[in-house]
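With this grant's support, we have settled on a layout for protein records. An illustrative entry appears below exactly as we store it:
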Amino acid sequence: MLLLAGIFEIVWAVAMKYSNGFSVLIPSIITIITYILSAVFLAFALKHLPLGMAYVMWVAFGIIGTTILGVLLFSEKLTILQIISVILIIIGVIGLKLFATK
């Protein structure tokens, strides 16, 4: 459920970019629908996961996915410090998962 929530978060963020400030209809509709789906799947995941862990992972999926797609789809440039920062986010999520208390 959390992975689906993360995927929908990435989709709504990319669709929002394509919506051009909600001035293009189809990407705007996709943004709204996937935003809602992302929240719904996060809510389902929260039935079984601690809030802090689930939220951090959900946000991390979004950061990592939108960063990669920003580079691939919109030719956004990343500095070495930005790349290092994303890597640190990944390491942080892995650390939280490895050392999470049950």
